[in-house]
Amino acid sequence: MAHSYTHEQVAELEGKQGDMLYGDGALVVLKALLESGISYIGGYPGSPVANIMDAAADAYDPVLKKHGIFFESSSNEMAAAALLTTSVFGPVRGAVAWKVLGNGVGQDVVDHVSQQGVQEGAMIIVGEDYGGSSTSVLQRTLSWGVKSGIIVIDSRGDAQVLHRMVKEGMDISRDSQSVVALLVRPQLSHCNSRITVGNNVVAKINTNNKVEYFNRDFSKFPFPPNSYSQESARFESRLPTAARLVVERKLNEYFGAVDAKV
Length: 262
What we know:
It is a single chain. By secondary structure, the chain is α/β, with parallel strands linked by helices. It has a single domain (14-199, 222-248), classed as 3-Layer(aba) Sandwich (Rossmann fold), CATH 3.40.50.970. Helix content is 42%, strand content 15%. Strands 3-2-4-5-7-6 form a 6-stranded parallel sheet, with helices on both faces. Strands 1-8 form a two-stranded antiparallel sheet. α9 (159-176) crosses α11 (226-248). The chain is globular, with a radius of gyration of 18 Å.
């Protein structure tokens, strides 16, 4: 069932540094993406992140369009994943969303993008609902991400932390040239919370400021012998860099006694 957002809720996406936003996980994620300076957003609606597509659709005319952000409600997850190739060949960042079962549908394209590497940042927002009973097939993203060489960020159930993880994930994607998968569970997606926000950032390359000439880098094309150098770079440079940045930027949190079993 589609979720409609009021004009007042959409207007909160234009909040400035220090302002408060009250809304569900979709508004929190979309606001963080706006602050990250995305050039595109797309996806295939599926539980529990279908509301992200609803929020983007309702916010397109009043917010996204004037920021020059390309928005697409994709026909399937593979079509959504194809948007990520924009970040392979150009200095732009963006995000796509789908439910966990869509990982398999978008697998072909995602594997190519992960091998090639991205420039400014590319994020897959995955509706992770294992044990949440919002989809009919139970799957986990972590094992899929390990197999495909993707960084997986699993935010704890705090909307302010989710807001930070979106922005941190985008920056780590840029700095390590790796694809990032951000997990959004039903509890985060559908619960309303109040968070402190920052300023939106307009991307240098957008639909209002298009590039006049596109310089193709043939080393990015996923064909031999490029495939071998890309694969080496992914596991010898990009992923180790991402792991180091996760530690340096303190993305992992620890609670309780240091000697606890869990």
